[in-house]
Amino acid sequence: MDKVSKHTLKSNESYQRLMDAAFKVFGQYGYDKTSIDLLAKEAGYTKGTFYLHFKSKEDFFLEFMDHKLSVYKQHFLPLLNSNATFESIISQGIKIFYKLSNEDNWIPLFFEFCSIAVRNESVKERMSIYYQEWFKIICMVLEKGKQTNRLSANLDLEITSRKIVAVLDGYNLQNSFVSNSYSLDQIEQLIKQILGLD
Amino acid sequence: MDKVSKHTLKSNESYQRLMDAAFKVFGQYGYDKTSIDLLAKEAGYTKGTFYLHFKSKEDFFLEFMDHKLSVYKQHFLPLLNSNATFESIISQGIKIFYKLSNEDNWIPLFFEFCSIAVRNESVKERMSIYYQEWFKIICMVLEKGKQTNRLSANLDLEITSRKIVAVLDGYNLQNSFVSNSYSLDQIEQLIKQILGLD
Amino acid sequence: MDKVSKHTLKSNESYQRLMDAAFKVFGQYGYDKTSIDLLAKEAGYTKGTFYLHFKSKEDFFLEFMDHKLSVYKQHFLPLLNSNATFESIISQGIKIFYKLSNEDNWIPLFFEFCSIAVRNESVKERMSIYYQEWFKIICMVLEKGKQTNRLSANLDLEITSRKIVAVLDGYNLQNSFVSNSYSLDQIEQLIKQILGLD
Amino acid sequence: MDKVSKHTLKSNESYQRLMDAAFKVFGQYGYDKTSIDLLAKEAGYTKGTFYLHFKSKEDFFLEFMDHKLSVYKQHFLPLLNSNATFESIISQGIKIFYKLSNEDNWIPLFFEFCSIAVRNESVKERMSIYYQEWFKIICMVLEKGKQTNRLSANLDLEITSRKIVAVLDGYNLQNSFVSNSYSLDQIEQLIKQILGLD
DNA sequence: CATGAATGAGAGTTCATTCAT
DNA sequence: GATGAATGAACTCTCATTCAT
């Protein structure tokens, strides 16, 4: 049983504590400037323990990234089974996105993911898969809109979902550098315009 | 050709070649993974030459970033004096953006800027200034649209410019990971929708 | 033998070996010309081990200097409890000083301490403290001379101790450059003259 | 005509300016921590000029040391032809010594000389010669004391001169670290005691 | 005479990784 | 499972020295 498979269970405490520590330190200092020493100490262990569980720093980062993006995605799954009106589901989704985005360390971490993904083919693929899943969830939500006649039957959901993601990502990026760049309302207004709900 | 100018010429050349090399190596490997050794070698010099011109790696990066963002911005300035129709100015702008974005190394470099800016207050400020200038240029273009009655007089140009930037950045980000994520036409269509030109 | 003690033993050994190596290499090459690489190699380790124990070269030097001066001082402490005659205690003290001074590397090392102390306020303070302790020990010895009526009750011990230290340091310095500059007898004679024992 | 011989004349301005700068920067930062860049700049030149005149940093330092020690010595030569009383010549000499010792940078520089001399045979020889000259001057002064019956005819002048130098050097060293360690009066008193003038 | 662009060896320091305990 | 001593490669940065101008 190799190291990696041990963690496919994702059950033991050290795994969780290292993941939590990673969120903090990778977010705060970035991948390169975070030493294993610091990461382990933050988790309450020492360097040695880290290598007991993970093959290398890179290996760990990839696993951490998968974990993080997967957890991120899960926050939106309840929307798929919601009984609320279409408009309120949309609002709800934007609110969740807004809240997650403003969580400490998330945006810096996301840039870190981007920075690394853009230079590493295999990481890029993971990001691509993540985006595809993202589009899919939005498509499923939008489908509800069509079914309830809130959206035009002609709307290309695939394209529309990509537009929505672009807008959300774009606002997020902008907000990282320009303070008070946007409000929840503005995002909501723009997305509704895109959906033809205005 | 006197002594001074020969020395100055040489100095200017090494400065410029280091800047050019930076675009390549920072884009390719990222800030942390790029060593001064590599950067200098890429420019055809040795480490020592680098430190003849710049105080430190960080110092250099900031200067390089300023330089790069300033050059980037300049590509859009001709739009301000264009005599073309409003719609074609918009198309033209998007085309320029699209072309620059697809230049090798630009997107990775931009993520690098983001990654560093988000953790460094002084870099963040530079990014903020850059974004402000960006908004301003777009506002000036949109103003033309108002003057020629192509845009509604009620349109809040400040907010609209931010929306446009968000959309462009967002599509750029998406396109870095999802291949064939969008076409020029799609961006143009979305921006025209935002402007109420559809 | 439990885990902790084995680790601790190893750690103590490398610490001690680095200190010992420092006596040799700092004495031989001086502070600036001694590289951490050389120091570590002399101790039988590599650079990394050095940084396991010490924060920086400067930090290490200060710790080493404290250590060395403290050990130096300890050689004289037995004099304080000696039952020998006052004159023989004085002779004994000078002999110890002479022996320590002729130990390989000590004088060069002492100049190194001086060189650095004179330019660094915090090192200077340590040197000052060291001299004060030095004066004190001599005062305590001289006090015995007063109690046994070998020294005049009028003698200012504080000032006299400083004179003795000056003479010893001065001869040491001279002896570093002028071969056969002085003999033990000459120092002893001068100090006895200062004490009014002649 | 080689580089060195140019300067045997010791006439040109650059020579003097570099010597003056050296006194300041070597005194302030020490040999190793003083860069040629800084030295030249302090003298009002650039690196290149330095190498126009001197073969290497070490070469320059030795020449500077010779120069400095020679100038130092010259301050005492007037004593040899003085018509004052023996006691006042002694006082005068100590005063000159005291004044020179308290000149900014001199003591640190002297330690630098010691530090380097003790590790370099040829520099050591220069120091030895300097000390010999030093002893000689003092001997010549003391001879006057004998001729005027102020000193015992039995006094071994050679040994006495060495004692005096030891006392002066020793007090100087002490004074570098222990503030208010000694006064002119104390030195004078001790030296007079050594001479049997008390 | 004087400059300063360029070099390259070498410095102090960090850190991912290994492994005996 | 957990530790921490040890390594060595790689990094940023400095500086004595050279030489074309």
UniProtKB/TrEMBL annotation, chains A, B, C, D:
Signal peptide: none annotated. InterPro entries: BetI_C, Homeodomain-like_sf, HTH-type_Tx_Regulator, HTH_TetR, Tet_transcr_reg_TetR-rel_C_sf. The lineage of its organism: Bacteria, Bacillati, Bacillota, Bacilli, Bacillales. This is TetR/AcrR family transcriptional regulator. Residues 12-72 form the HTH tetR-type domain. It holds the Pfam family TetR_C_6. Residues 35-54 bind DNA. GO terms for molecular function: DNA binding. Keywords: DNA-binding, Repressor, Transcription, Transcription regulation.
